[in-house]
Design brief:
By secondary structure, this protein is an alpha/beta fold. The protein contains eleven helices and twelve strands. The chain folds into two domains: 27-251, no CATH class; 275-371, no CATH class.
Length: 371
């Protein structure tokens, strides 16, 4: 499959960033298989029953973490609609397995592991995912004692030092619990196609909440890790749906989605135009009008919102300016275009500034009593 990035390339520059996939509501399980066969490289399942039967047929019994991961993935509410399972031989690393799968499909966004891997292999996978063109998100379990998962130089600490925004790491009793987090995220995206969501404070089905002190929770969350705990005996909550970079999962997701939508729209405008788009400012206006309509949709979904620009000056925006509706677009005039770019038939770069709406995670209630 040829990339459209040679025609329309999206570069997302934000105080925190990203790039472009196809399906944001589908998870992938990479599964090391001692009895690997080429036919197992890509399986597609549309329900827990399908996945359970398929995994058993491929040699993974109901006692394996892979089987449990598939069941937990589909058990979330709202439920995701599809799971890809890609087996790989023991001679491959997860990074090599993902590269091999991408030769077959890029129709997924979440990625989890169905069998144990070394921290070194997981870190190599995260580095590869962060560097590749197709964005996706790794859902990783943090296993061991609370002290183990925050140890200096450990998996979470290393991802934190990398400021990883491509991993969602959750303290878990077993490896398959990470698939539940992925299923929760994919199910919410499937159910929220016309709205938006945050992963924070969601409930995980089939996962036992961790018994942690607030001090242990704080230590894990300080490194961008997540926990699934019980509060006040009745609330079972995933906290806080974060990545080690400090960005929330939904912030990364929606930046990826916006980038993908803008890129696809640019290619469509170029490909579907019956005449030609001249290298003039009129063409720039067409792109800006098209992109504005797309971004207005994200404002309506509460992904973007009017806010003060707090970053460095960029284009016409100065620190302190209000970005109306959460986005601003501009481009330099073709009068300033270099001869080389004109000869290469390049459009003037369209600049986009976005301010995210964010999401509430706490509230203070002041009760004033007159005695």
């Amino acid at each position: 499959m040829l990339s459209i990035s040679t025609i329309a390339r999206v570069v997302v520059n934000a105080s925190r960033t990203v790039s472009v996939p196809t399906s944001f509501d589908t998870g992938l399980m990479l599964l090391k298989d001692a009895n690997y066969a080429a036919a197992k490289r890509l399986r597609t399942y549309n329900s827990a029953a399908e996945a359970a039967a398929g995994l058993v047929a491929d040699g993974f019994s109901s006692s394996t973490e892979a089987y449990k991961a598939a069941v937990k993935y589909f058990s979330q509410s709202p439920a995701p609609g599809r799971l890809l399972v890609s087996c790989y031989p023991s001679s491959e690393t997860p990074t090599q397995a993902l590269a091999a799968l991408l030769d077959l499909t890029s129709d997924f966004y979440g990625v989890c592991l169905g069998a144990a891997e070394t921290d070194a292999n997981i870190l190599a996978l995260e580095a590869a995912v962060s560097a590749q063109e197709k964005p996706c998100m790794l859902f990783l379990p943090l296993m061991g004692t609370a002290a183990d998962v925050v140890v200096s130089g450990g998996l979470l600490d290393t991802l934190f030092s990398r400021s990883s925004r491509r991993s969602v790491c959750t303290y878990a009793a077993v490896l398959s619990d990470a698939a539940a987090v992925m299923g929760c995220a994919m199910g919410l995206q499937l159910a929220s196609a016309a709205s938006s969501f945050a992963l924070c404070y969601k409930t995980l089905q089939g996962v036992t909440p961790s018994d942690l002190t607030q001090t242990q929770i704080d230590a894990i969350q300080a490194l961008g890790g997540n926990v699934f705990v019980t509060r006040n005996y009745t609330f079972h909550l995933l906290e806080k749906g974060s990545t080690p970079s400090g960005l929330r999962y939904d912030e990364v997701l929606y930046m990826d989605m916006i980038a993908a939508d803008l890129q696809a729209a640019a290619v469509s405008l170029l490909a579907q135009n019956t005449g030609k788009l001249p290298q003039t400012d009129d063409s720039t206006a067409m792109f800006i009008n098209l992109f504005s309509g797309i971004l207005a949709g994200y404002t309506a979904r509460n992904v973007l919102a009017s806010a003060e620009w707090r970053g460095a000056a960029v284009g016409p925006l100065q620190n302190g300016d209000i970005v109306e509706n959460g986005f601003a677009l501009w481009a330099d005039s073709y009068d300033t275009q270099s001869e080389a770019d004109r000869a290469a038939h390049k459009a003037m770069p369209i600049q986009v500034a976005l301010t995210l709406a964010g999401s509430l995670e706490s509230v203070v209630i002041n009760v004033n009593v007159q005695l």
